[in-house]
Design a protein that fits this description.
heterodimer, A: mainly alpha, MetI-like fold, B: mainly alpha, 14 helices, about 0% strand
Chain lengths: ~280, ~290
Amino acid sequence: MLGLAPALIVLAAITIAPAGYLFLTSLTPLNLTMPGTAWDFSGPHYNYLDLWEDERFLRSAWFQAHLSVATVALQLLGGLGAALLLNRDTPIRRFGRSALLVPMVLPPIAVGILWRVMYTVDISPFHRFMAWIGLPVPPLTTDPDFALWAIVLVDSWEWFPFTMLLVLAALQMIPESPIEAARIDGANGWQMFRYVLFPYIAPTLVVCALFRLIDSIKAFPLIYVLTSGGPGDATTVTNYYAFVQAFNFSLWGYASAIATLMVATIFVISWIIDRLGGNSDGRHD
Amino acid sequence: MAGTTEALAIPRAVPAAPPRARLSVLRRHRRAIGDAATLVLVLVVLFPFLWLLQMSIRPNDDIFGYDLAFTPTLEHYGVLWRGTFAGSFVNSVVISLSSTALALLFGTPAAYALSRGGFRRRRGIALWILATRMAPPIAFTIPFFLAYRWIGLQDTQIGLIIVYLTFNLALVIWMMQGFFEGVPRALEEAAWIDGCGVWQTFLRVSLPLSAPGLAATAVLCFILSWNDFFFALVLTRTNASTAPVAIVNFIQYTGWEWGRIAAAATLVMLPVVVFSMLVRNYLVKGLTAGGTKE
């Protein structure tokens, strides 16, 4: 149809063309400081071979896995808990449902700055409070053991509302009768959750987990503002590593290979989401 | 329903086999306990946000104080407005609005065509949209950065507007398709009988009926563009730098001047918070674009 063509042409030009260009670049040793490296396809697989021997890359992948798993687990728990608390129609909880969305919609750079204040020991109200009650907390973002956890905490803070929102929507779709039946049978709070509500919201939780898993692979502004990938390389996750390789070291071919690998990983996860989306119900909104 | 959700709100407060009298006492207060827990949760979660807001209006000599009785001042905002931040703020507004407008211009007719077209094509497009939403920004920035060097779009507003189309266009197509599906066919058929063509029907019947959806979609596009940091950081330097990048720039040049930073962050945050409350009912749909079925 006529209306479709312009949009699809534009969309192809700005998504498929760059993807192709990225892949082609990943087959070259492109380095903007060295002329003649742009279309040099003499060793197309070198970048990909290098990846497996680059210890810093492998470490970044490990940090990435750590960050992703920890933050997804935390935000699912937090979001689920918040949703269960707010799943009742009182004016205060209606207010809570809106107010708790704030972290999720804030510009990521602002989230970084909010937490930069919280993590800077001499000015942070949190650190001062802990010191005041006699439990001083050491600086977190500059300690290699805690820096990644500091990022995990902020990322979970930012994104638990996403799970909360989706779980609240799912809770509202649960029919009245099984709940009624369980109550007549004398189910307690935990039983009600485990055997009645949970089966209804489980598919939603899976979708939340996958969506957030994918987005956690892109974490950038938080790391940029809070730790710049440090201390050492303690918070240099794969995405950040690719950024540094390209924009600091001008290793464009190599960075493209990393990005291509990330896209491939994400496609696999997307494919799983698509399968789940086609087979399960209860997430219509 | 009410009783069970109360039980869920504070699961630990309900023992496995409670004596009757105690249960009824708990039940009487359950609503109040849940409400109180909600308020505490909101305060704890929003604390960093509220803290920055008050920092932005606190005088410089007491910027880290925690005494709530202080005389608010707008000096930090004044400093910002006289510096280069104002220009970046305007850049942000112009770029976000333009990208939103372009995405609506291209995306709305496409969404309409899709909603009235066959099912097979829809499925392919949904996958494509999901893929663009999922792809890591670094995968787009590398080719865009290299291409912009050649064609001279580095550090220009147009350059960023085009890049933001990568996610805005996909979002518009996805969202509007859902809204058009909600328009009753009978109304469109009536328009055809009265002699309207397909596109006339679109402009005079379907589009006006989807106006609230169009507004929500526009706001979401605006928020996504406004919030972007990565693309703007990489593709702009001074002329077209947006507000988020401007904050980072003056941190780099003048160090951590907290009052100014707090004020700048507040200016970047507030429009988004206001707008997102307007469209909160559409947030789920926008954020999971391509991933969930209508």
